[in-house]
Amino acid sequence: xxxxxxxxxxxxxxxxxxxxxxxxxxxxxxxxxxxxxxxxxxxxxxxxxxxxxxxxxxxxxxxxxxxxxxxxxxxxxxxxxxxxxxxxxxxxxxxxxx
Length: 98
What we know:
alpha+beta; globular; two-stranded antiparallel ribbon; 98 residues; single chain
């Protein structure tokens, strides 16, 4: 497989990802910080996110369920909280298949 020369993938270009982060901070917060929208917070979660700590991957409708990176389907989340949340979703799906 050839290496891509653009900085774009299914999540969009780096400029698009940056724009989504800024939109989330403005839409859900004061433009500089916003609350972490996960119900279960990981130890060390400050309860809010900044441009440096935000994870845009929090989806009310998960990608495997047809969710996209559209603005109506993303929420701000603290990176470590969000990453631990993904593992729980996978484990839950595995249990449901059995």
